[in-house]
Amino acid sequence: RMPILEQCYNLLDFESVARRVMKKTAWAYYSSGADDEITMRENHSAYHKIWFRPRILEDVEHIDTSTTMLGTRVSMPFYVTATALGKLGNPEGEVVLTRGAHKHNVIQMIPTLASCSFDEIVDARQDDQVQWLQLYVNKNRDITKRIVEHAEKRGCKGLFITVDAPQLGRREKDMRSKFDDVGSNVQNSGKDNVDRSQGAARAISSFIDPSLSWKDIPWFKTITKMPIILKGVQRVEDVLRAVEVGVDGVVLSNHGGRQLDFARSGIEVLAEVMPVLRERGWENKLEVFVDGGVRRATDIIKALCLGAKGVGIGRPFLYAMSAYGLPGVDRAMQLLKDEMEMNMRLIGASTIDQLNPSMVDTRGLATH
Ligand code: FNR
Fold this sequence. Notes:
Oligomer: single chain
Bound molecules: ligand FNR
Strand order of the largest sheet: 4-11-10-9-8-7-6-5
């Protein structure tokens, strides 16, 4: 029998329910990684190489999990990252995530390739809820300019330019499962005779510009006042270059293991990046985020100890939304909150800014 919602006790539980209840094509698209999925698995298991060095006797009666990201106050140090094609998992699509994010006061990143239209997702916002835009850069820059200007006009507070996908990775699970209904209005693909035999991902992504380069980044600063963040940075040298071109942040990410197989996990790259930034006194020049494989509050806490401003979470919310709709997303976020409070108490930190590198033992990582 299928577990009821109350029997999901952690984020991984949603995945096993989703695997059983989701349409085969939808499961294949959400769950797949590139090639042999080595990076996808490594994303989560890399967190298992980091251990805690908890402090004792620190007065942890009151725990405050709130923090800021790009100037926005949030209740917890994670955000809902951009994942395409929300309607594959839930007929209402991305707006379900918008409502969940509102309930828990966390930020939602809106994907370029959402199933709902951009305006529908913005219209689903409540109160002073904050959203960011994830951007795939179109070969036609006029289209890209229009998307960015529109997002800023509609109140988006951050522009996350995806830089790890000049070509979409080969996700064989997705390719094997013939896909016919994108459920997407994919407004900027600029062509509708897409090749569906290549799986959902490739069918919708042919508009992405593989010639995008560092030279293009200054242009984005001329078309928007939103903070600009590069999503998908994977090595120290490129973080330093990002600082030099003056962007406001980076997401250390390998796209959830969906692009280059054998890319390293974001958390391992983070452990390498932050000491270099600190050495140069550059740690406050940009905000460093990390995503990929975050499934437990202990994962989030580890990333913050190492210097991340926040973490992105993708698949778990898709699975929660696909299996149980909004109540699923709500419960997944509540479980994370409960885990956050307990584990911060046990590590001896009552506020986010107390988390620091002395609280983790990273000797198990290749870089420490
Ligand atoms: C993604 N991701 C992604 N990233 C992006 O920049 N644009 C996109 O359209 C998508 N689409 C997408 C679809 C699906 C189904 C997944 C699982 C992921 C990558 C995403 O933003 C993020 O980097 C990873 O999902 C993080 O890893 P976890 O949390 O899914 O393990």
